[in-house]
Amino acid sequence: MHAITVRDLVEFDPGKRIKKRVVLTENLITELLCYEPGQGTVTHHHVREDEAFYVIEGRGTITVDGLVHTVGPTDLVFAPAPLDHALQAAPDSRFVVIYFRAPGRKSAHPGIVATPGETAAAADEIAARDR
What we know:
Layout: E1 18-24, E2 29-35, E3 40-44, E4 50-58, E5 60-64, E6 67-71, E7 76-79, E8 85-89, E9 95-102, E10 111-112, H1 120-129
Antiparallel strand pairs: 1-2, 1-10, 2-9, 3-8, 4-7, 4-9, 5-6, 5-8
């Protein structure tokens, strides 16, 4: 499979952020993040992986190295390794972001790994088998 409709992967959970792996190869990891209003990802960093975040829907902030970027649809924010970064949905908006991280990881099944209609729990189970 070489193409997918990302919109078909969007799923929300009021209890936690949803994260779905979309592409996995040795050179690239792409994951979809879906936040309910106010949800976020804590500040963290990657030792050797750069990340680019592209906002698909909603509003929020993406913080890189302490600089807060207020973002909305079609905005792109780059977080080079090893800078700290975090994401936060606005208190009144869902927030859907896809990110691209490189380098990727070795995978038994490289390429698009997401399946439209698949729940986040099922996607997590599949991703765990590929670690």
